[in-house]
Amino acid sequence: MAQSNSKKLDAITSMDEDFAKWYTDIVKKAELIEYSSVKGCMVIRPYGYAIWENIQNIMNTMFKETGHENVYMPMFIPESLLQKEKDHVEGFAPEVAWVTHGGSEKLEERLCVRPTSETLFCEHYKNIVHSYRDLPKLYNQWCSVVRWEKTTRPFLRSREFLWQEGHTIHATAQDAIEETERMLNVYALFCEKYLAMPVIKGMKTESDKFAGAVSTYCIEALMHDGKALQAGTSHYFGDGFAKAFEIEFADKDNKLKNPHQTSWGVSTRLIGGIIMTHGDNNGLVLPPAVAPTQVVIIPIAQHKEGVLEKANEIYEALKVLGVRVKVDDRNEFSPGWKFSEYEMKGVPVRIEIGPKDIENNQCVIATRYNGEKQFVSLDDMLDTVKDLLENKIPQGMFDKALENREKHTYYCESFDEINKALEENGDGFVRAPWCGSEECEDKVKEATGISSRCIPFMQDKMARKCVCCGKDTDKVIYWGKAY
Amino acid sequence: MAQSNSKKLDAITSMDEDFAKWYTDIVKKAELIEYSSVKGCMVIRPYGYAIWENIQNIMNTMFKETGHENVYMPMFIPESLLQKEKDHVEGFAPEVAWVTHGGSEKLEERLCVRPTSETLFCEHYKNIVHSYRDLPKLYNQWCSVVRWEKTTRPFLRSREFLWQEGHTIHATAQDAIEETERMLNVYALFCEKYLAMPVIKGMKTESDKFAGAVSTYCIEALMHDGKALQAGTSHYFGDGFAKAFEIEFADKDNKLKNPHQTSWGVSTRLIGGIIMTHGDNNGLVLPPAVAPTQVVIIPIAQHKEGVLEKANEIYEALKVLGVRVKVDDRNEFSPGWKFSEYEMKGVPVRIEIGPKDIENNQCVIATRYNGEKQFVSLDDMLDTVKDLLENKIPQGMFDKALENREKHTYYCESFDEINKALEENGDGFVRAPWCGSEECEDKVKEATGISSRCIPFMQDKMARKCVCCGKDTDKVIYWGKAY
Known about the structure:
alpha+beta; five-stranded mixed beta sheet; 35% helix; globular; 14 helices; Rossmann fold
């Protein structure tokens, strides 16, 4: 295995040297995306898209298990429709793309390319919801949306991105609030179980909630560089949209009422989250559940008798188990070059098999996230790989990410403590008492450069004083710099 | 079962009375689509979208088995990029939607919403294809596209529609031509095996090919009303796009060459094809492979002891087999009402189970496409249903559709024969000798109102005379009215 140290020549920028460059190096060199000539829009390449497909498949199952159905709405919204809900249009109009011409003709009314589809769903619900028997409608849509951002970064903020948007409508406020919470929990479970990404569940402050929502719930994750990533949101709308769009239903008591609505979404941004939660200086590190290739088998001295046969035997055995596995038997690259290649691409497990291994009825199993290598008897290979993919690796990745988050979560009781913590330990989550006023929220932002992330559901209910105004409060909030 | 004749009050328009209205009645009443306030764009409702998801799942497997990978390109194309290939821009520019503003700012260059993505794929291939080792790239994309049509109809012609577009690039012309043919065969196999829709495989005439293509292959199906539906196309581009976009690769002989390209697509139009191939005056008739619900179980006298239990037992047994099955145990509707409901929705198999059936250890199995009902011993129920879904129904539906097509395919040798056949038997395919000239093609259209559909791969190579000019030819072509 002498070749195992011959790294690829074009190593990526180190994370500590330039985090932003490290990030874009990974998205390019792991072949997740390629830039296009449309500013802020990206080509999602097969390897990147396969990660998204795996995310979609798992989530789709979770959505269907919770009773949701997929639909497809038009991608265009007439300007007059967008304007029906006042807060909503104020939030979105400044950042939409406008279609003004169809062929050579000027349109009578401009159409925006959907930045989100609340207005379209409302128009549809008005057509199909008339009685309590029609409720709830639990709809979801997978599509792309457009927001005309000034500054863009692959996966994190782009002018077009892929996402899912759930839109549900219920007879009562309670049903809608339960749905809002249910879907936030689905998101949190998905992130923690399948992406090995610990998240804080909480609520956005008034100033930070979705345009048109009564309340916005969110999950927040901490990235390697100490910045926060909003990984998913779930909004409770009350009956505000229903009133604006005149959606009414005859309830059991025969009275006409406005139904209550929710919406919730996650996007390809999650892929950015995976990169910045798990990646390292050798490249991407993928959680097994969404890795396009879970195991790569690399034959050593593959020209020697029996090596390729044994590699293919292992391949077949893993494939039967449902593992996404490949053998790389290319002649033109050394094993060491291949090691680097699959490290860059974040393949969770590498199996090396050479003549000596075969002699000893063993193979080498290397784990991407922690770099560990072990000799494993070929008799135990299947059990070992299965246990790694299903338990050890996701758990290990989650623990590592959680440890990093804990290390960069600062419990502060004053401005001084906040500034000191950030200065000494770098960016991170600041968990601090807050009186709940927008004024204090603004002042913290001014004084420290960090902004509110969320009011966590997990509160400790201790009597303390707001870091800003000093008023008594038992409420804590997370602050941080955000992507 | 006295209630079985109590049809729903709002029956659909009869096919013979008004075919177009029959069609729109079905798309609305089977809850496939709903109109939106954006002209020519539709809401695809859960039942309609589930059909599309089933189509996607089967096709995706077929695409992956033939080595293709999914990617995602931006939805916008800068005007200058669209203009790079002359024929292509001429074909598409008149029918694209133009984005001119982002937020409140006017864009420096207009962007069109993709009507198809050849230009984007070419731009990407120019970036990633440099050597023969990089070839072929076999990419596919699932997305929505926009074409600013004047006249629109749900699924058949809408301003936005969902589709897949394959885009591949190869080292040699031969490889690209083989790919073009391979994917046409995949489409034909899909339509015939999974949609039970017989298709003619052939080639478009010069005047009818895709903008920018060297040749366009297609599959054509005949609808109930005798009109033809182009159900899928596969294009061979030669190296025209590669030259226009300056895509070059170093071949094995170290010479720089232009690669050869293809593209191929099918869309939600297939759902329109299903409706008009199999539907009847009771509503939709779905092929089992893509039916969201394959079997519906309707308990008769469900308040009687043991009926619901037995219905649920059947449900569980079918579910374990992987059948998409549901029990409709709603109290507020009679069995007869439910029969009509699921006939409208085209559910392939209905199982009725009542107290007398249970006494006799049997159930009634009704088959949607031919209306047949049979008593089946509960011991044979699983085998019977499985055989119906996998063999008898798809085969029966295919045979019925083929019979209809044969009945409406007219073999003609002269203008007179064409006009007579159409007058006596109604619209249909006209299979007739053609010399191959565009002039004759135009004259046939003028004289008979039908246009060329395709030059079929299956030729009989008999010596005959062109129906128009009378020149000797051994070539036949299909003519017809097209959707």
